[in-house]
């Protein structure tokens, strides 16, 4: 293909040069005084003589020659660049692609502002209490994306969010989903709806700011975000008006074990004094459970789920036990694939059991970092808790767990103690 284009370029250059030389000869002949000028008027003869003396034929020849050479050189450079571009990307010369690409760059993947104004008065937010309503905006699920070429990444809203529960295996699930070819996973927690959102500003402006934080994705990719704090610290109404068709994944685990894991996590981040034990945090001086402690409050699953069910139907939830994900990752991920409508990707070869770590990891041929396992901070040791204190916690959480399972419409063995 390169030799063909170069051949055409040289042949066209030769023809152009020959024509230029012929035109130059004709011009010089016309400019020289001949016998025919005797028949012309004296005025025309004088003008011709003056022009001939002022614009010497040699000067004219040089100017035309330099002009032709410059034009040939520019043409050569242009065709050389075209040949190199074509050899790197055969589709680059497609006029349709060039037009669509330029349109995409000019638009800069603008997010269409199609959110309708909320009816009624603006909601009032208080830092100590969140009020919940059942208003909807009635916009379509695709109203924030501009349809572009299939080879161009777009800015769009997430179609699925892992909303929690914190310390119930959400990090492992994020790593498992990250290897799916049709998912565009946000690897870090965004914390937009629980920390960054400003309810004093118009929601559509905040929504644009949120979408800019997310990765861009191809049309055939689903954007996935994971922020466990959304389950109990965010307002479900915000997620609903962001995307009413949003699918929600919720990993649940034994709240007694979760409270211990949250204590270890908080201590590692310096939120607890090093000299305070787990019992010092969880129980008061009389041995009763400290119900105002954060690790206890966030281990109560029923109230947050009740708030979410006011806005999202049960069919948009996938509530999974983390023990199922940890012990049978292939089956668990295949269930998530089905829930999200993704192509089948996970097989028995996707995961392997790492004996030293004690958990399933991703096949190193797919994920090389850490032999396919999570970072060391995900495998922390839990402190010893006496059987008496564990029993106290189980009696405390059992009625809460029962209410949660009733709302979820499903039984979870790790939430049933007795």
From TrEMBL:
InterPro entries: NST/OST (IPR037359), P-loop_NTPase (IPR027417), Sulfotransferase_dom (IPR000863)
GO molecular function per UniProt: [heparan sulfate]-glucosamine 3-sulfotransferase activity
Name listed for the protein in its UniProt record: Sulfotransferase domain-containing protein
Domain of life: Eukaryota
Disulfide bonds: 361-373
Coiled-coil boundaries: none
Gene3D superfamilies per record: P-loop containing nucleotide triphosphate hydrolases
Active site: 167
A Pfam short name: Sulfotransfer_1
Residues that hold 3'-phosphoadenylyl sulfate according to the record: 261, 360, 378-382
Domain Sulfotransferase: 158-363
Organism, scientific name: Owenia fusiformis
Transmembrane regions listed in the UniProt entry: 54-78
Keywords: Disulfide bond, Glycoprotein, Membrane, Transferase, Transmembrane, Transmembrane helix
């Amino acid at each position: 293909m390169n030799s063909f284009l170069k051949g055409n370029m040289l042949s066209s250059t030769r023809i152009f040069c020959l024509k230029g030389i012929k035109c130059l000869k004709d011009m010089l002949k016309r400019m020289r005084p001949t016998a025919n000028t005797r028949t012309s008027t004296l005025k025309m003869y004088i003008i011709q003589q003056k022009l001939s003396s002022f614009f010497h034929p040699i000067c004219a020849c040089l100017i035309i020659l330099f002009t032709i050479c410059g034009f040939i050189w520019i043409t050569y450079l242009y065709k050389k660049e075209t040949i190199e571009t074509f050899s790197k990307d055969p589709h680059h010369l497609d006029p349709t692609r060039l037009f669509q690409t330029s349109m995409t760059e000019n638009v800069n993947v603008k997010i269409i502002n199609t959110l309708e104004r909320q009816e009624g008065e603006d909601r009032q937010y208080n830092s100590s209490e969140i009020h919940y309503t059942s208003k909807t905006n009635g916009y379509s699920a695709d109203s924030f994306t501009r349809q572009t070429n299939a080879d161009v990444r777009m800015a769009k809203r997430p179609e699925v969010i892992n909303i929690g529960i914190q310390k119930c295996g959400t990090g492992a699930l994020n790593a498992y989903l990250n290897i799916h070819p049709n998912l565009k996973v946000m690897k870090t927690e965004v914390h937009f709806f629980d920390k960054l959102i400003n309810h004093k500003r118009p929601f559509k402006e905040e929504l644009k700011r949120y979408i800019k934080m997310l990765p861009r994705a191809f049309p055939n990719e689903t954007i996935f975000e994971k922020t466990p704090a959304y389950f109990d610290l965010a307002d479900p109404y915000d997620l609903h008006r962001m995307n009413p068709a949003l699918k929600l994944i919720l990993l649940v685990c034994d709240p007694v074990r979760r409270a211990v894991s949250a204590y270890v996590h908080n201590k590692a981040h310096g939120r607890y004094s090093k000299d305070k034990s787990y019992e010092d945090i969880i129980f008061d001086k009389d041995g009763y459970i400290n119900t105002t402690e954060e690790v206890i409050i966030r281990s109560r699953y029923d109230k947050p789920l009740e708030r979410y069910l006011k806005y999202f139907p049960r069919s948009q939830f996938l509530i999974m036990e983390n023990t199922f994900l940890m012990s049978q990752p292939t089956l668990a991920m295949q269930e998530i694939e089905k829930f999200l409508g993704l192509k089948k990707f996970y097989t028995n070869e996707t995961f392997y059991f790492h004996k030293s770590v004690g958990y399933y990891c991703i096949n190193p041929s797919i994920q090389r970092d850490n032999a396919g396992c999570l970072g060391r901070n995900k495998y922390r040791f839990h402190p010893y808790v006496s059987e008496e204190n564990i029993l106290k916690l189980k009696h405390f959480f059992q009625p809460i767990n029962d209410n949660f399972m009733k709302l979820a419409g499903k039984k979870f063995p790790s939430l049933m103690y007795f």
